[in-house]
Amino acid sequence: MVGGVEYMASQARKSFDNHVKDVERLLQLHTQLGGKGKGRRYGLEVLNKSAIVLITAFWEAYCEDIAAEGLEHIVKNAKSADALPKSLKKQIAKELKEDKNEISIWDISDDKWRAFLTSRLGKLQESRNTTLNTPKSYNINKLFDDAVGITDIASNWKISPKTDAKAAADKLDRFVTLRGNIAHRGVDEASVKKKSVDDYLKLVKALAGKTGGAVNRHVKSVTGATLW
Predict the structure, then answer these.
(1) Rounded Cα gap, residues 1 and 146, in angstroms
(2) CB-count burial class (<10 Å; 0-12, 13-18, 19+) for 114
(3) HSE-CB of 53 using CA atoms within 13 angstroms
(4) Higher-scoring residue by pLDDT: 108, 1
């Protein structure tokens, strides 16, 4: 809901917008405790660290959710396997070729490719969790390529006249690296400021919009129908 009016968006985006309210509450708490005046706030860095970790988790969850939603849409609405993106067909063919089961090709015969694609996404997610990948631009590109056949989704990330897609991806990668430092090494207390949280949240909201738009255009090109 925006201003009491329901807005059109994917389920993934609605969930993301609901989740980031937690980060906004942390920022509000920071202001309540530290005020709005200039100068450093002592003892509040833990709020900033927590916010960076949450934003990264919500961004990763959003990407996985919108990829799954896009795939589900393709599975339900594509007229046939012929409509699938070429890159996705290549990946499936490669995986089946490498399968030791000599009759695995029959897993996608007739209309069974729909169930195969759905189960395949779950396996991809399990694999990413096992290898502890982080939601940097490279891994997000791979996620969407593997899941729905979008190659280089990060190329859609131009978020302003001054921030092209590469600059946005580089900025995302730096913030995700910061998140890793916080989680694994703690980071010096003075190193994470409220401005970093504000910048990261703004960036991820913009990237979510660009990513969702790219997925929506992609599934329409495959199925003829949009997500929303």
Answers:
(1) 32
(2) middle
(3) 15
(4) 108
> How far is it, in rounded angstroms, from Cα 192 to Cα 195?
8
Reduced to 3 states (helix: H, G, I; strand: E, B; else coil), residue 135 is coil
Q: What is the mean pLDDT of residues 6-14?
A: 81
The answer for 7, left when phi > 0, alpha when psi is -120 to 50, beta otherwise, is: beta
At 228, which amino acid appears? W
| DSSP E strand stretches across 88-197 | none
Amino acid at 20: V
3 state SS of 226: coil
- pLDDT (tens digit per residue) in 73-84: 998 898 888 888
Alpha carbon separation from 1 to 12, 13, 17, 126 (Å, rounded): 14, 12, 10, 33
Place of tokens 């807005």: 7
In one letter, which amino acid is 136?
A: K
Instruction: List, for residues 162-188, the tens digit of each pLDDT value.
Output: 999 999 999 999 999 999 989 876 665
What is the residue type of 151?
T
pTM assigned to the model: 0.84
